[in-house]
């Protein structure tokens, strides 16, 4: 079986009928850029910058961040790298910036924290923009966006950071060319489902965080063992929400990918492909499995599967249909 999977490495992902799906990896600290090259990975779909912050005893300086990001961007030169701005709070704590709350997942997390501390956000974005000077493959992604006002505020700060860096860079080299990176958001808070039409002209792309979207849609803490059986991205309601996002972002002309765990699950990747997504981002170890199932399936069969599962009432009914399809194609 491992040999079979290895053979998938040499090819880009596509369905049996030749429908291409671009696969990206999720990363945060170390990654093996050779593996990424061998497996025909098309870039980094989610780079979790918080690990860099979690490993320090203080906030990393602008130049520390710059050299770190520069390395990541250089390792993937020629391919897009989606760097997410600091997403701490919730279950991710910084030892030097403790946050004590009764409901951390509903509290001071992600963009909420960095918009309240623009100095942290500006330093990070300036570091990213400087790191991008040579390679030009940076995309900036904003976590935990729950309203369009946050997008406006973050865009304002990103423009400020870009203008500051531009002045600095042009002073050093008047011929330097500085290109503004694309800016996108994570769709992981259910309120965004009802504001997708308002994103037009404000974001260049978006990416669905199915881990948090599942937790918030079903009101189930993703780390609480007592309710673990209720936490399920195969819940028909979660799938209906994701399908709605696929359709609405398509109508709005905003490219939308998926970077939550569902994208790296073979059955999940089948459903997402059937919904119309053509960009999936996952942990490196899932890439070959996903390629393998996609290669066995006709797009039409996956679209039919989505039709079927959206009529289900429970996650186990969805899983039954997904597994039956896997068995049929395998
Ligand atoms: C998600 O929420 O699905 C996601 C990709 O982000 P994280 O798991 O880092 O919250
Ligand atoms: Mg998330």
Backbone shape = globular
Specify the helix fraction band. 40-55%
How would you sum up the major sheet? 8 strands, parallel
Strand proportion, as a percent range, falls in: 5-15%
CA-CA gap between termini: 12 Å
Radius of gyration: 20 Å
Low-confidence stretches: none
Which ligands, by name, code or SMILES, are bound?
phosphoenolpyruvate, magnesium ion
Provide a count of the helices: 13
The SSE string, one letter per element, is: HEHEHHEHHEHEEHHEHEHHH
Number of strands: 8
Give me the side-by-side strand order of the main sheet: 7-6-5-4-3-2-1-8
- Tell me which oligomeric state these chains represent: single chain
- Which structural category fits the helices and strands? alpha/beta
Rounded average pLDDT? 94
Subcellular location: Cytoplasm
Protein name: phosphoenolpyruvate--protein phosphotransferase
Family: Belongs to the PEP-utilizing enzyme family.
Organism: Psychrosphaera ytuae
Structure description:
This protein has 330 residues and is an alpha/beta fold. It has helices at 2-8, 33-38, 50-54, 62-75, 110-116, 118-131, 148-172, 210-218, 236-252, 266-275, 287-296, 299-309, 315-329, and strands at residues 22-27, 44-48, 81-84, 138-142, 182-187, 205-208, 256-258, 279-282. The chain has an eight-stranded parallel β-sheet with strand order 7-6-5-4-3-2-1-8, with helices on one face. Strand 1, helix 2 (33-38) and strand 2 form a beta-alpha-beta unit. Helix 6 (118-131) crosses helix 7 and helix 10 (266-275) packs across helix 12. The longest helix has 25 residues, at 148-172. The chain is globular and about 60 Å long. The chain starts with a helix and ends with a helix. Bound molecules: phosphoenolpyruvate and magnesium ion. Phosphoenolpyruvate binds next to strand 2 and helix 8.
